Amino acid sequence: MAKNLEITILLDFYGDMLTPKQREFLDYYYNQDLSLAEIAGNVGITRQGVRDAIKRAECQLTEMEQRLGLVARFKEVNKGLEEIMDCATQINAENRRTGLSREINDLTVRIKSIALSLSE
Question: Distances from the Cα of 43 to the Cαs of 23, 27, 58, in angstroms?
Answer without folding.
Answer: 13, 13, 19
